Amino acid sequence: MRPVTALPLLLLASLLCQAAPKPDLPALDKPQLKWVEKTAPKARDKFSKDVISLLKKHDDPALRELIARWFPECRKTTGEPTGTEIGLNAETGKAATALAKDWAALAAEARKAGMPSTAGWEALRALKLDDGNKQAAEILGYVERPKGKEFVPERAAKLYEAGKHHCERGWMARGPKPIIDEGEDPYDDEGDEAHAAWAKARELEYTFVSLRTNLPLAEACEIGQRVNALLECMRARYLLVEGYTEPAWPLKVWVLAKDAEYNQLWAERQEQPGSPFGEYSYLHRIAHVNAENCAQGFEKTVGIAQHESCHAFFHAAFPGQWDRGQATPYGWMMEAVPAAAYYIDPLNPQDGKLAEQLKRKFQKADGTRDEAVQSVLDGKDWLKELNGAASYDESIAHLQAYITGALFTAMAWQDDRLREAFARFTARCMAWKAEKGEFEKTLGDTPELTRQLKEWLK
Ligand SMILES: [Zn+2]
To answer: For a FRET experiment, which of 232, 339, 371, 454 has its CA 20 to 30 Å from that of 250?
Structure first.
């Protein structure tokens, strides 16, 4: 063949190479695209208009608070959540029921379109508007409460059936007794002093978590309720995702009040905790927290309890082999969702205003921001760096496993195009199944995702 004909052939070959289009990632099929581009925007538009007119009609602080907490996208209308107690009256209750009906229908459409994580999450939000919404309950696998109209998790229904009573202390054998003498406890609790040592720790039982702690009762109740609420959210985001196994609820969390008690516990087991703040033990299947070492204060204790419980959730929901995991390159992804879970609070159940909180947390005295967060805001491609780590341990050794991981999680939770691929991929990572290169194949190239993250953080 003469060289002159080789040239057009080469040209043709290079043109063919260019012509093969790169797949659009994360990949969405037709029904998913329709949900993302048509169904959801239309439903959200109607929802936000309904909220505006509803709040004009009924200026009920409870309704405003309910929407502000669970639908942060409406905060231009509702304002920020304030902590007002949510108890709707007959009229606003009816209004919330109507909103829930539309939202549950959107969740059902997402399920039909093959968007399991979206469906679970939106169903939970619909159920928060109206706990009697059958369509949302069905998606979440909740059942009717015995002798009641609302839908509750299966375990809660069984506990009601067994005659148990639910309060802020969790599930109790009976309701509170009438108080005659001042200082008496309605549940005959002997007081914080009696439970101050780890050997005398209280055991509080909630629907999704059983908490053992020797912290004062008020703190114990707050940790128990917040971890329980977090686990309800995590379950909603993952229960329909491929590979999900329903955990044997409740998961176990131990919060030890004293540093010495924490260290003694591990010494007795002849084991080393991975962190002085807390550790989820894959061996014992218990999330541990060292409260005294959480020197930044009670919020840190709650945050660590939420973080470690999140590990417990994934280990139970997507079981996998730790030894297989030694080879998995995505240690940072296994920390990403628990890192985001750290910041979830009762007023911000969706993502805990994580970006704002991280910016504040890493603000230095001189007004500049710690490089760890600033570089993410500046658009440094940490995702590429983390994915390039040679091993699981190497990728979690870096603070960015937590910072970039948490921010990327929060962005993915709010992005219709990313949410499903992210949920699928985290589930594979948590089960130690993800292969090297799978991140890019599932979610797309890191420079583009980093660009999106920078934009989202503005
Ligand atoms: Zn962790």
So the answer is: 339
Domain assignment of residue 19, yes or no:
no
**Ligand 1: centre distance to CA 158 (Å):** 32
The tokens of 309 are what? 């419980």
Residues that place a CB less than 5 A from ion ligand 1 = 335, 338
Mean pLDDT by 10 residues, the chain (458 residues): 51 57 83 98 98 94 97 96 93 96 98 98 98 98 94 97 96 92 90 97 98 98 98 98 97 97 95 89 94 87 96 94 68 94 94 86 89 93 93 85 95 96 95 91 96 94
Same domain, 283 and 300: yes
Contacts for 221 with CB less than 8 Å, ≥ 6 apart = 168, 169, 170, 204
Same domain, 343 and 258: no
Cα 334 to averaged position of ligand 1 atoms, centre (Å): 7
Domain boundary among 299, 319, 339: 319
Residue with tokens 């594979």: 428
> Alpha-carbon torsion 14, 15, 19, 22, what sign?
positive
Count structural domains, the chain. Answer: 3
